[in-house]
Amino acid sequence: MIDIEDFKKSIEKKSRLLGIDPGKNRIGIAISDEDKLVSTPLKTIFKKNNSNFINEIQKIIEENNIKGIIIGNPINMDGSKGPSAQSAEDFSKYISNNVSIPVTMWDERLSSQAAFNLSSNLDVNISKKVNKLDQNAASFILQGAIDYIRR
Q: Which CATH number is 4-150's, of 1.10.220.110, 3.30.420.140, 3.90.1150.10, 3.20.20.70?
């Protein structure tokens, strides 16, 4: 796992990135276009165990020619790290040890709330909102990171 500045230097100019919103059982996945302009929600993976999850991630990487992974880091609003941030860090290290592309973390404060609010504005019913919340949060995380990378 590397910091965002090293990540920025290590990815190719034309490359797609994967955004991940880590959760205990539900993991949101989003993907960027190769120009890193737009993040799009892809899917929610229901994690049964670590190996099924890694297999699914590796399949997405291969099918979409992914060159880097950005994982949401749930830092507390005051900037401190709580149990969720420690979990996300462990999760990131695990992914980093099992894929051959760069992995970094991105501050995801408010991403789930923002994703929920966005879907509220789109007049989407509650069950659809909840079903898409994780992948929308992943997209929000990825969009923040690609906006930063492009600056």
A: 3.30.420.140
> Which H helix or E strand runs over 21?
strand 16-21
Number of Cβ within 10 Å of residue 19's Cβ equals 32
User: Comparing C-alpha atoms, which of 75, 79, 82, 71 is closest to residue 22?
Assistant: 71
Distance, first Cα to last Cα, the chain: 22
- Domain spans, the chain: 4-150
Give phi and psi for 25, each to the nearest 5.
-120, -30
* Residue-level pLDDT, tens digit, the chain, 151 residues: 999 999 999 998 899 999 999 988 899 999 999 999 999 999 999 988 878 889 999 999 999 999 999 999 988 778 788 888 889 999 999 999 999 999 999 988 655 555 555 555 555 555 555 668 889 889 999 999 999 998 8
Going 134 to 139 to 141 to 77, the CA torsion angle's sign is negative
How far is 105 from 88, CA to CA, in rounded Å?
9
